[in-house]
Every structure is written in C-alpha cells, then in structure tokens.
Amino acid sequence: MRVLVGHRLIQLQPKGRVPLRRLQLMAIPFIEGPHKFMSDLDLLAKSYGTLFLRMHRLLDRRMAAGGASLAKTKMLMCVDQRGPMRAADIADYLGMAPRTVTEALDKLERDGLLVRSPDASDRRVKQITITGKGEQAIAATEPLRVELVDLIFGSLDAEQRASLATIIEQLSAKVDKVEGIDPD
C-alpha cells in the first residue's frame, strides 16, 4: 500500500489489514508536525516551556564561560547567603535530590569553591562553607546573569512587565492548587 507523505509517495508494509484512511491519518503527524493536533493552550504552554529552556541554556552557557554554571552559582549563592549548611539543607532549599546535591558539592569542593568541615555539635554532620575562590566565582558570574535578565526582560515596557508578573502569579497559584499546596 502506498501513502502520500508530503510530496512523496511511500510504500507501507502494514501488519494485517489496515484501512487506507487510517494509514493516512497515522502519517499526518509526520507531514504536518505535532502542532496540527495541539490546542491553543498546548501551543501556549509549549511556547512558554521552549522560551524558558532557551533562556536557561543561554544563561547557563554564558555563566559557565564566565567561570561557574548557573547550577553551580545557585548552589554557591545559597551557601554564601545562608551561611554554613548541611547538604540536606541545600537540597531542600534548592528543591533538588540529595544525591544530585552531594555530587555537585563533591565537584565544587574539588574545585576549591566550597569546603566541608565537621559540625561542632555532631561529628557525623558536615557543614558546607563557601571559600574565597567560591566568592570570586559568584562575583564573576552573577553580573552576567543580571545583565542577561536585564537585556531580555528589559525589552518589555513597565506595563508589559506588570502584566507578565500578574500572569506568572496567577499560573503559579493554579499550579499550587493543582499540587494541593495551601498558599496560607
């Protein structure tokens, strides 16, 4: 059986007997792309997700070129701003898996950006503290983050930024509600 896909006629070898119309319908996603079947809300969600990922990757590349990736800088800033912390506290604060945090801390410690030291009250616990080199990494990368955020969001006027902030708050509240999180 042959089916028209785009401008080409291709031969299909279906298992069993499949009606031609069904084969044509099955080929549509490959011809017209998945957007053909997406609702306006799906397209909006996809566009928002794509924009977020593009901005995140751009920010990460720029910061990594400046000395520390976005993830490293977030972890360094967490320890810098909150003082000595346990790995479990960092994982909880950043919403990351403890194993992921431990692996990242190992690398940051090897790079001399953080140091682990025994807790004075419980020798089993290690306190993580930022080093001078870690503070220098923040000083080098945080301005890159601020510059890029200003460049992107600065393209919106005050009214557009206020509208976007309202929309984000509304969507965030809906996500909280769906997750069963009580805002109070």
Automatic annotation (TrEMBL):
It comes from the Bacteria. InterPro entries: HTH_CRP, HTH_MarR-typ, MarR/SlyA-like, Tscrpt_reg_MarR-type_CS, WH-like_DNA-bd_sf, WH_DNA-bd_sf. Keywords: DNA-binding, Transcription, Transcription regulation. Residues 34-173 form the HTH marR-type domain. Pfam families: MarR (PF01047). PROSITE patterns: HTH_MARR_1 (PS01117), HTH_MARR_2 (PS50995). PANTHER family: MARR-FAMILY TRANSCRIPTIONAL REGULATOR, TRANSCRIPTIONAL REGULATOR, MARR FAMILY. This is MarR family transcriptional regulator. It comes from Sphingomonas rustica.
